[in-house]
Amino acid sequence: MPRPTTRASPKLRSVAATDRRIRVPADLRRLQEVRAFVRTCALEASAPHTSVEDLVHAVDEAATNIIVHGYAGRKGWLDVAVSPEPGQLVVTLQDEAPVFDPTAVPQPDMTVPPDQRRPGGMGIHLIRLATDGFAHGPRPGGGNILTLKRTLDPRAKEDR
Prior knowledge:
By secondary structure, the protein is of the alpha+beta class. The chain is built from three helices and five strands, in the order E-H-H-E-E-H-E-E. A five-stranded antiparallel beta sheet has the order 1-2-3-5-4, with helices on one face.
Protein backbone atom coordinates (compact mmCIF):
# COMPACT_ATOMS: atom_id res chain seq x y z
CA MET A 1 0.00 0.00 0.00
CA PRO A 2 1.59 3.33 -1.03
CA ARG A 3 2.26 5.92 1.66
CA PRO A 4 -0.14 8.85 1.63
CA THR A 5 1.30 12.08 0.32
CA THR A 6 -1.22 14.49 1.77
CA ARG A 7 1.41 16.45 3.63
CA ALA A 8 4.81 17.68 2.57
CA SER A 9 7.54 16.36 4.85
CA PRO A 10 9.63 19.02 6.50
CA LYS A 11 13.34 18.97 5.94
CA LEU A 12 15.31 17.20 8.60
CA ARG A 13 17.13 19.71 10.73
CA SER A 14 19.95 19.58 13.15
CA VAL A 15 19.60 21.48 16.39
CA ALA A 16 20.94 25.03 16.27
CA ALA A 17 22.82 26.50 19.19
CA THR A 18 20.04 29.08 19.72
CA ASP A 19 17.25 26.51 20.17
CA ARG A 20 15.88 25.89 23.66
CA ARG A 21 16.66 22.34 24.62
CA ILE A 22 16.38 19.80 27.37
CA ARG A 23 18.02 16.42 27.78
CA VAL A 24 16.38 13.82 30.00
CA PRO A 25 17.09 10.19 30.77
CA ALA A 26 15.04 7.76 28.65
CA ASP A 27 12.54 7.12 31.41
CA LEU A 28 8.74 7.33 31.16
CA ARG A 29 8.70 9.17 34.50
CA ARG A 30 10.45 12.10 32.74
CA LEU A 31 7.72 12.61 30.12
CA GLN A 32 5.91 15.13 32.30
CA GLU A 33 9.06 17.26 32.26
CA VAL A 34 9.28 17.00 28.46
CA ARG A 35 5.61 17.98 28.05
CA ALA A 36 6.02 20.96 30.39
CA PHE A 37 9.15 22.08 28.52
CA VAL A 38 7.46 21.95 25.10
CA ARG A 39 4.34 23.68 26.44
CA THR A 40 6.40 26.49 28.03
CA CYS A 41 8.45 27.05 24.87
CA ALA A 42 5.32 27.10 22.68
CA LEU A 43 3.54 29.55 24.97
CA GLU A 44 6.62 31.79 25.07
CA ALA A 45 6.47 31.80 21.25
CA SER A 46 2.85 33.03 21.52
CA ALA A 47 1.51 29.87 19.93
CA PRO A 48 -2.28 29.56 19.99
CA HIS A 49 -3.80 26.97 22.33
CA THR A 50 -4.60 24.50 19.52
CA SER A 51 -1.02 24.54 18.23
CA VAL A 52 0.40 24.17 21.75
CA GLU A 53 -1.76 21.17 22.63
CA ASP A 54 -1.21 19.47 19.26
CA LEU A 55 2.54 19.86 19.54
CA VAL A 56 2.69 18.71 23.17
CA HIS A 57 0.61 15.64 22.26
CA ALA A 58 2.79 14.80 19.25
CA VAL A 59 6.03 15.17 21.23
CA ASP A 60 4.60 13.03 24.04
CA GLU A 61 3.73 10.25 21.56
CA ALA A 62 7.14 10.44 19.88
CA ALA A 63 9.06 10.51 23.16
CA THR A 64 7.03 7.60 24.53
CA ASN A 65 7.77 5.54 21.43
CA ILE A 66 11.48 6.34 21.68
CA ILE A 67 11.62 5.31 25.33
CA VAL A 68 9.38 2.22 25.13
CA HIS A 69 10.30 0.83 21.71
CA GLY A 70 13.63 2.46 20.86
CA TYR A 71 15.44 1.96 24.13
CA ALA A 72 13.25 -0.99 25.19
CA GLY A 73 14.35 -0.85 28.83
CA ARG A 74 17.99 0.05 28.13
CA LYS A 75 19.50 3.21 29.59
CA GLY A 76 19.75 6.20 27.30
CA TRP A 77 18.77 9.82 26.86
CA LEU A 78 16.35 11.95 24.91
CA ASP A 79 17.24 15.43 23.72
CA VAL A 80 14.31 17.75 22.88
CA ALA A 81 14.83 21.13 21.22
CA VAL A 82 12.14 23.70 20.39
CA SER A 83 12.70 26.37 17.79
CA PRO A 84 10.22 29.07 16.81
CA GLU A 85 10.40 29.73 13.08
CA PRO A 86 8.29 32.09 10.99
CA GLY A 87 4.69 30.87 11.30
CA GLN A 88 5.56 27.59 12.98
CA LEU A 89 7.24 25.76 15.80
CA VAL A 90 9.81 23.05 15.16
CA VAL A 91 10.62 20.37 17.71
CA THR A 92 13.64 18.14 17.22
CA LEU A 93 14.01 14.94 19.20
CA GLN A 94 17.37 13.17 19.22
CA ASP A 95 18.30 9.87 20.80
CA GLU A 96 20.90 7.13 20.59
CA ALA A 97 18.41 4.25 20.28
CA PRO A 98 18.57 1.88 17.30
CA VAL A 99 17.61 3.62 14.06
CA PHE A 100 13.88 3.51 13.34
CA ASP A 101 12.06 5.63 10.76
CA PRO A 102 8.50 6.34 11.93
CA THR A 103 7.71 8.15 8.68
CA ALA A 104 7.87 4.77 6.90
CA VAL A 105 5.12 3.28 9.07
CA PRO A 106 1.94 2.92 6.98
CA GLN A 107 -1.32 4.53 7.96
CA PRO A 108 -3.46 2.28 10.16
CA ASP A 109 -6.55 0.63 8.73
CA MET A 110 -9.21 2.97 10.05
CA THR A 111 -11.99 0.60 8.97
CA VAL A 112 -11.16 -1.62 11.96
CA PRO A 113 -13.40 -0.59 14.87
CA PRO A 114 -11.48 0.65 17.95
CA ASP A 115 -12.77 -2.19 20.13
CA GLN A 116 -11.30 -4.71 17.67
CA ARG A 117 -7.82 -3.16 17.52
CA ARG A 118 -4.90 -4.42 19.53
CA PRO A 119 -3.87 -1.99 22.29
CA GLY A 120 -1.38 0.66 21.18
CA GLY A 121 -0.12 1.13 17.67
CA MET A 122 -1.75 4.51 17.06
CA GLY A 123 1.05 6.82 18.26
CA ILE A 124 2.55 7.56 14.85
CA HIS A 125 -0.92 8.10 13.41
CA LEU A 126 -1.61 10.61 16.20
CA ILE A 127 1.71 12.37 15.46
CA ARG A 128 0.62 12.71 11.83
CA LEU A 129 -2.72 14.18 12.91
CA ALA A 130 -1.21 16.63 15.41
CA THR A 131 1.61 18.00 13.23
CA ASP A 132 1.93 19.59 9.83
CA GLY A 133 4.72 17.18 9.00
CA PHE A 134 7.60 15.24 10.43
CA ALA A 135 10.89 13.91 9.15
CA HIS A 136 13.37 11.31 10.34
CA GLY A 137 17.05 10.76 9.79
CA PRO A 138 19.85 8.80 11.41
CA ARG A 139 21.85 10.73 14.00
CA PRO A 140 25.58 10.98 13.31
CA GLY A 141 27.24 8.63 15.78
CA GLY A 142 24.12 6.48 16.05
CA GLY A 143 20.51 7.03 16.94
CA ASN A 144 17.74 9.12 15.46
CA ILE A 145 16.76 12.69 14.70
CA LEU A 146 13.02 13.27 14.48
CA THR A 147 11.78 16.71 13.45
CA LEU A 148 8.14 17.71 14.06
CA LYS A 149 6.59 20.88 12.67
CA ARG A 150 3.37 22.59 13.73
CA THR A 151 1.97 25.77 12.27
CA LEU A 152 0.99 28.65 14.52
CA ASP A 153 -2.29 28.96 12.61
CA PRO A 154 -4.99 28.51 15.28
CA ARG A 155 -7.41 26.86 12.85
CA ALA A 156 -7.64 23.10 12.79
CA LYS A 157 -5.70 21.50 9.93
CA GLU A 158 -8.95 20.43 8.29
CA ASP A 159 -9.99 24.09 8.07
CA ARG A 160 -6.75 25.36 6.53
